Amino acid sequence: MTSLAIAANGLRKSYGDKTVLDGIDLAVPAGTVFSLLGPNGAGKTTAVKILSTLIGADPASGEIRVGGHDPAADPQAVRAAIGVTGQFSAVDGLITGEENMLLMADLHHLTRREGRRVTAELLERFDLTEAAGRPAATYSGGMKRRLDIAMTLVGSPRIIFLDEPTTGLDPRSRHSMWQIIRELVTDGVTVLLTTQYLEEADELADRVAVLHNGKIAAEGTPEELKRLIPGGHVRLRFTDPAAHRTAASALREVTRDDEALTLQIPSDGSQRALRSLLDRLDTAGIEADELTVHTPDLDDVFFALTGPADIPNQPNQPKENAR
Ligand code: ADP
Question: From ligand 1's centre to the CA of 322, what distance in Å?
Fold first, then answer.
């Protein structure tokens, strides 16, 4: 049986009469990546703060266990098992990257020698050795996030909360962060990742929960979520308007766009469906100039579940700027 690293039943949190979390259930098996996906303001950080003991859940919440411990009753035990990085960064900009690391080693009561060894190893692993002697304030956004994760790893946590670890990062730093997360999982660490990027959840998560209006609107593997909704289709593009017209009348169930000269045919994208479509085109003597297969992605799922207004299209600035 797989044990659960994080389990929550009916997690609730309100501020005054504003309900942020309206009874959410989470079950994260050890050694997996679980992604809480939702737009800005959905309540992701609130969930992370509760699970990592920073704030309390409402009393009406059900049972919560992190690393087997109750965050409210035994916060010390939870803190010993977890690491938290993300929006509320622990990096001190006035001291160097190396000093930040050594400070963490002290906090974790490592001996001086052990602290130096772990610091050197982690700085090397996160490609920060060269920058180690510079004040952290001079680091780029990506370097700061890497330092933040390195600092978290000094305590060898088995469960890591990554709260929007790539928000505001450039694509290259984002990919290097993804690689870091994959390596953490290879080491057996459990990761709870919050993100507003569908692509990120799709890339990294074993399971995804879509947070919407304080509730989990859908949960499953990225593949399961994609199967929840229709949206798969084959798109044919023509350059000759006459061929476009002929094809539109020869094929049933098409959505046609007379301006773009395209036809969309609903399809699950399977080999069988494609063969049947190609047979029909051949029989009618039609040759399209371009054929593309569109399988639904998490964008479609998100769109179907939460409506167009909630699709984030602008990366938000990290919240640390707002403090
Ligand atoms: P996310 O991380 O998904 O962007 P948050 O958990 O930060 O969302 O916030 C969810 C909602 O809860 C937001 O509407 C936010 O304004 C509200 N909220 C968060 N913290 C507080 C607080 N201390 N007091 C009042 N409202 C809060």
Answer: 13
- Condensed to tens digits (0 to 9), the pLDDT of residues 238-251 reads 999 999 999 999 88
The model's pLDDT over 55-90, given as tens digits with 9 standing for 90+, comes to 999 999 999 999 999 999 999 999 999 999 876 578
Element (H, E) at 276: helix 271-283
Q: Give the residue from 261, 254, 253, 266 showing the smallest Cα distance to 293.
A: 266
Note the helical H segments in 126-188.
141-153, 171-186
pLDDT per residue as tens digits for the range 252-293: 788 899 999 999 988 877 888 899 999 999 998 999 999 998
Tell me, in angstroms, the distance from the centre of ligand 1 to residue 10's CA: 18
Closest CA to ligand 1's atom 26:
15
Q: What residue's CA is closest to ligand 1, atom 15?
A: 41
Q: Which residues, other chains included, contact 313 with Cβ-Cβ below 8 Å and sequence gap of 6+?
A: none
Q: Ligand 1 pocket: which of 18, 20, 213, 323 to mutate (most atoms <8 Å of CB)? A: 20
